[in-house]
Design brief:
9 helices, HAD_sf, 2 domains, alpha/beta, Rossmann fold, Alpha-Beta Plaits, globular, four-stranded antiparallel beta sheet, Trehalose_PPase
């Protein structure tokens, strides 16, 4: 995937918007200094481009809340330590509590209550839901969708001749899908099994008189994405074909490709 991203970023402005901290994200991708690659760490609170690895635009409100985030990270690490399989990840401008590998699934409500207790003690912070994760972030009207809007404007890619493409698999990517609805292409990464689970949840909601709309996106989640791929292999194949189209002149290099992995 690294080579595919590198090839793509040579042809199109490419951004990786993630819940992970920016420095951690740059290290994970391993393409620091690439001339066409941008990063939006901590759900877009910390953005940097190819002008320099250490050049970063941080949202002012996020930087001001850094002490509260550090306190929350320490409190959460202590509070959820007894929940075997859970993990607290300090993403600098956000804190993630992962429960995908939680040994006792029946303990999840109590784990969430512990997270709520910490958040309630810090009015400048708020809790969000992700894919098998609770996210603690600054209380701000900022998210991945706003980060994508900022990048498009900063790169002068907001015109009608630009087709932004955003790929993501997390609940937090829905903000970006909504932002690009009607002006770009949102692609959700969602397995066939997740589609089936969501369809079943829709059936339960329908039986209870609930409304349904949009494509099913896993355990009752709805998505604003316009397309779906089932696996990361399909993501790789799509990006490779996108690069080939750019090299062959079938699409122009001004088209922005914004790839996200939560």
């Amino acid at each position: 995937m690294r080579q595919v991203l590198s090839d793509l970023a040579h042809l199109f402005p490419t951004a990786i918007v993630s819940g992970r901290g920016r420095k951690k994200l740059q290290s994970l991708i391993g393409l620091a200094g690439h001339p066409g690659l941008f990063y939006g760490g901590s759900h877009g609170f910390d953005i940097s481009g190819p002008t320099g690895v250490n050049d970063s635009l941080r949202r002012k409100e996020a930087s001001e809340m850094l002490p509260a985030l550090k306190r929350a990270s320490a409190q959460l690490s202590a509070s959820v330590a007894e929940f075997f399989g859970s993990q607290v990840e300090d993403n600098e401008l956000a804190v993630s509590v992962h429960y995908r590998n939680l040994a006792d699934k029946e303990a999840l409500p109590e784990l969430e209550r512990r997270v709520d207790d910490v958040v309630e003690g810090s009015p400048e912070l708020t809790k969000h839901y992700g894919k098998c994760v609770f996210e603690v972030r600054p209380r701000s009207d900022w998210h991945k969708g706003k980060a994508v809007e900022y990048l498009l404007d900063a790169l002068d890619l907001g015109g009608p001749d630009v087709l932004p493409v955003y790929i993501g698999d997390d609940v937090t990517d829905e903000d970006a899908f909504k932002t690009l609805h009607g002006r770009g292409l949102g692609i959700v990464v969602m397995s066939d099994e997740e589609v089936g689970e969501a369809a079943a949840a829709d059936g339960e909601r329908g039986a209870e008189g609930g409304a349904a709309g949009g494509e099913a996106a896993g355990r009752g989640r709805r998505t604003a994405a316009t397309m779906r791929v089932a696996t990361t292999d399909e993501v790789r194949a799509f990006l490779r074909r996108f690069s080939e189209a750019g090299r062959e002149g079938r699409c122009q290099g001004k088209a922005g490709a914004s790839a996200a992995r939560g």
